[in-house]
Every structure is written in C-alpha cells, then in structure tokens.
Amino acid sequence: MKIALIGYGKMGHIIEKKAKERGHEVICIIDKDNQQDFDSEAFRNADVAIEFSTPATAPENIRRAWQADVPVVCGTTGWLDLLSSLQEELKNNNKALFYTSNYSIGVNLFFALNKYLAKIIGNYSQYKPQITEIHHIHKLDAPSGTAISLAQDINFPKEDIISERRGEVAGTHIVKYESEVDSITIAHEAKSREGFALGAILAAEFIKGKQGYFTMQDLLNI
Q1: I need a surface site. Which of 6, 11, 109, 141 has the fewest CB within 10 A?
Q2: How many CA atoms lie within 13 A of 220 on its CB side?
Q3: 117 is in which domain, residue-wise?
C-alpha cells in the first residue's frame, strides 16, 4: 500500500517506521513547510493519507486530500466541533474518512468496557463518576479527545474532566466511580505511541478502496 503522511512530528515518524515494518511504502510526506505537495503527483498516487497534524489545520488537510481523491485516516484531536460538517460533505462527495479520538486497540477495548460499566452501574445512584486524563506536556488540546469520547459514552460533563500534563507521558485515562463506602476504577495506560501508530496503519489498510465515514468500531467490530 502507498501511504502519504500529513504531519511529520513524533507520531508521523513512528507511523512511517511501523508502516515500513508492515511492508507499506511511504511515498509522500507533507508538513507545514511543503503544503504545495498536496498538488504533487506523488500525493495523488497514494492509496491512503494518514493525518496527524494540529487542530487548526486538520479539517483543511482532509479537504485537500479529498481534492486529490485520496482517502484519509485522521488522528488529530481538538477539532471535534467541525467533524459533523465534514461528515455532511462526505455524503455528497463519495470520499472516505476514518476518524477516531484514539487509534490504540487497547483504548478502543477500554471504550467498550467503559460503556458496559456505565450500563451496569447506572441503577446505583450512590456511585459518582470521575474522569482523569494524563498526557505529555506537548499535547495541544485539553481535555484529550479520548477523554471526551469516554465522557460522551457515559453522559459525563466534558468540563468536569480532570486534565494533567506531565513530562513525556504517552497517555493515561482513568474512569473512577466513588461512593461513601468504596470505589470502582478502570484505567488504560499507554506505554508508548507505537500502539497508536499501529492502529492508524490498520485503519489505513481497512479504508483503502472504500467510501464513507468509518471509526474503530467498524474496524474492530465492537
């Protein structure tokens, strides 16, 4: 598979490494200093573009990839309020977008566990939820997209999420239910960014040749 990378920060470098390990070819890399390469023949020849940039640039990056008829796997968070407009555009342009707030397979299993725990604990009002997310100091958005997804799944107010930034933490998410007599906690801790990179590549393999909007639920069937 021929892959174009949009965004060449730490995640972009790791995705490039993991893609090559799986036998794919990275034929075009676009970063902030070579935006003209969206119009290049190399970019147009890509089977899929994997986008990890910034909240301010992600929506337009997706549109420019669509203009070149290249499907997009997007991992940039922090622009969720604009996602619905892109989904509307998808209905009319026969393009493809794969989006999730977190590409880690473990995190998506954690999403399913979070929903199930909320369902079974819902009849016991004495348990009050709390969501905490911890990330590296370079992360631009807070709370994280993953924490927002966890909150949406259990109808927890986004503004009540606790966000912490420490060193080079890859990502930790904690959902805790407290009562006067005990507490119940589930957590996911990423050991590195490689799990996110692998998930993005699996998404690229999945979306190749497809049209429409897809998430990790489609990929993992959970």
Answers
A1: 109
A2: 17
A3: 105-189
Residues 20 and 122 in one domain: no
* Same domain? 147 vs 73: no
Mark whether 180 and 203 lie in a shared domain: no
Q: pTM, whole model, 2 decimals?
A: 0.82
pLDDT tens profile 53-97:
999 999 999 999 999 999 999 999 889 889 999 999 998 898 999
Chain position carrying tokens 């969206």: 38
Pairing of β 48-51 and β 72-74: parallel
Burial call 140-152: b when 16+ CB within 10 Å, e when fewer = ebebbbbbbbbbe
Is the domain of 89 the same as that of 125? no
Report the Cα 84 to chain-centroid distance in Å: 15
Q: Which residues are catalytic?
A: 135, 139
